[in-house]
Structures are given as C-alpha cells and as structure tokens.
Amino acid sequence: MSISTADTDRLSATFGDVLKASRRASLLPLGMLAIALLYLVYTWFAFDMGKVFGAADAERSVILSRDSFHYKYQLEHSQRRNDFSITVEGNRETEIAGTEKIPAWVTRQNDETRVDLGDGHVAHFGNGFMDYTAPDGSLYQVRTTDEGVTVNGYRSILVDDRFYRFLPIGADPAAGLLNLEELAELGIIPQGASFATTKFEYAPDFYKRLRVTRSQVLVERYFFGWEFFWFGPKSPLAGMGLGEVWEVATSDQRIDPKLANYEYVFLQFWRNPDWQHNEMFIALLETLLMALLGTFVAAGVGLPLGFLAAANFNPFFASRMALRRLFDFLRGIDQIIWSLIFIRAFGLGPLTGSMAIAFTDTGTLGKLFSEAIENIDNKQVEGVRSTGAGAIQRYRFGVIPQILPVFVSQTLYYLESNIRSATVIGALGAGGIGLKLVQAMQTHKDWENVMYLIIMTLIVVIAMDMGSGWLRRKLTGAEAAKA
Predict the structure, then answer these.
(1) For a Cys-Cys bond, which of 28, 122, 274, 312 suits 133, CB 3.0-4.6 Å?
(2) Model pLDDT for residues 13-57, shown as the tens digit of each residue
(3) Which residues fall within 8 angstroms of residue 136, CB to CB, at 6 or more apart?
C-alpha cells in the first residue's frame, strides 16, 4: 500500500500541530518556574538574607547544642560575702551542702579552693584572687584591686570610651599601651581570653570556663549527660544505682515514718528541684487539655454549623453566605493573633489558649464539614426517607454515616496539630509546656532542660499520632463494615 503525497502532507501538518501544542504546553510550566525563581531572588534582596545569614552565630549554636546533653558544676566564691558554694547549673536549689558530697576533683582548705579541671588545667582561688595553671605550666594570676581586675601584674584602661588597652600596674600610659592580641603573644593572658577592667574570662574548651569579676570568682566544669535527673544532689538517694534504689524501695525500714519507702522514692524523683518533673508534667497536661478542649469545642460547634452552611440542607442563600464568611473570618485570623486578643480580654491561662484554638478550628472544620455534607450521596438519604423517617432520622442514618470518616479523621488530625499549636500559644502566656520552654530558654544556661521539654513534647505528639491513628481505623473501619 502506497502513501500519497496528500497523505504525507496531512501527516506532516498533524505532526507540526502536535509539536506546536507540546511547545505551548511546556512554555507555561517553564514560565511559572522562571517567575518563582525571580520572586525568590527578589525576596533574597528585599529581606537582606545575606545580612541575616552573616549575623548568624554558628559557634553559639554549637555550644547550645552541646549544652543540651551536658551538665555543669558551678563553683562560686562571692567577694562581697566571702563565702563559697557549689551548685549544679547555678540553681540554688541544687547547692551541694556538706564536704562528703563535694566532687573528688575539688579540694577545700580554709577559705581557698583548688579545682582540677582535667587535662592539666588547674584553678586555685579564694577571696579576691584566682591562679590558673595551664597544661604547659604557664601561670596566670588574676587579682581584684581598687583599679579593677588585673592579670599577671597588668591592668586595663578604656581609650576613647571604646577600646581597652593594657599596661603594667603603676606604669605611665604614655610609655605605650598593648592590645589584647599583644598580651596573649607575650604570655600575659591565655590565647582567646577576655580581659577588661571589670572582668577576666577564659574558656580553654567547651568543658571549662573561668571568670573573675569584682564581685565573684566563678569556675564551671561540664560533664556529658543529665546529672541528677532522677534525684537531686541533696537527696539521700543521689548517686545510687537502680539496684540500690530498688532495695531502698522494698526495705522494711522506713526512711520517712509518714511514707512508705516506695512513696518516698517516687516523691524524691517527682519533686526533683533541678528537673522539676512534677511541674513539667502538669505543664504538659495543661497543654494537652488546652488542645483537647479547643479541638472538641471546634468540632462540636463546626458540625451543626456545617449543616447550616451546606447548600443541600439550607436553601437560604443569605444565611449560607453569612456562615461561610464567618468561617473565613475565624480561620483567616491565626491562632497566635486570637490568643493575643484573648490574653488582653481575659488574662493569662490555659482557657485563653483553648479559646484561640476553638475559634480558629471552628472556621476550618466548619468549612470542611459543610463541603463533605454537600458531597454526600443523596440516594442513601432518599432510601432512609422512603422508610418514612423524619428529618432527624434522615440525618442520623443517611448523612452521619457518610460524613463520619471525614469528621473523625479531620478532628483527630487537628487534635494532633493543636498539641503543637498549644505549645506555641502557651509560650505567649497561655501557660502549659510552651511557657516552661520559654522560661528555660531565657536563662541561657539550662539547655538540657529545654531538650527535656522538647523530648517530652515529641513523645506526646507521637503518642497522640499513634493513638488517633488507631482510633481512626477503628471508627472508620467499623462504619465501613456496617455500610
């Protein structure tokens, strides 16, 4: 069979049309991609992202990340009171009292303290002085005098109200001043130390830090782990292993005559002054209840409003439009904005967070439910009607079984999401775990407590995800089996 010239021309024309159509079709996504790239370039310069990334302190991020999995002993000698204290994380509630609990690397004699910081670093200090010995044997003598803090016989002066310069005590400034780098090169101060009239500060590495001011001498030493997580340093159970704690809990000899030993052990853990497990649990419970109350109120209000906003159940156009605009208004304002409004109106507390969640989710769930109702199969409703059922029965047996999977899945999904939202809202003052998290972050030193709170929140979110998934399968699966 031969192909004529006319057939060849028609095939060529058809192929050309297809090629042009494919080119036109590919131009649209390419054009949209180009617009998106141009917008990203615009936002980069409009928000000055280069400056934002330039201002980021990567070293501080590393320090805080490492601090999340370390604890520190803080040894302080007060210059004003001439007294000495050892605390964990600087918390007075965890102050170590009694020489029997002082760490082995700390030696006390009279009013002076010697601290072996490890790796050859040694600090010896008392009222008004600190002698620091480096691993190479270099000695740095820090003193507090009427002229301020001095190091190895050098003092600082402020030049032009901007820069600190250094010279020997009693020397004439006209003879010449040294800067910080020159002091380090001469071995007067350690490399990387901070020196000014008011303080001397040096951190040989992440695990050690020395600080001397006119009011205090401070030495900090870090260790890996979460020390005293189970029992505080003042607890008789501190430092015991699991077997020893079990023996105490099951012993017939009571530690506290008013409590059984297992109650005593639990309360020693529950009321740990540093980790505050009881307060953390109550805060987490507040967050959970905030999310539960807000979500279920939104679902309970959104379902009947969804019926009223559905075109196949409400024939009045004006009322449907009013309800839909109400949904837009409620969900158009973010939960954080609602929480700020309610904080101003009703004050701080979990109720404020619950109302913020309920308002926002009523708009969202009401819209979702109304759309689900409009998309139901009317044959099932008509079948129920044919039995002589009334309006309430038609809703119960003709509509609810069809929208139940959507109702359950969306409600449980928003419950999971609202646990995270309640944490953010709580940070603004509504209470719960969010407020505890902000308070821990503001201290700039208890980052292991911050990590503890984050892990607790993640555990609750994961548990809610698994529990809601199981409940969703049970409810929707049972309904599907009935259908």
Answers:
(1) 122
(2) 565 565 565 666 666 777 788 888 888 888 888 877 777 777 766
(3) 120
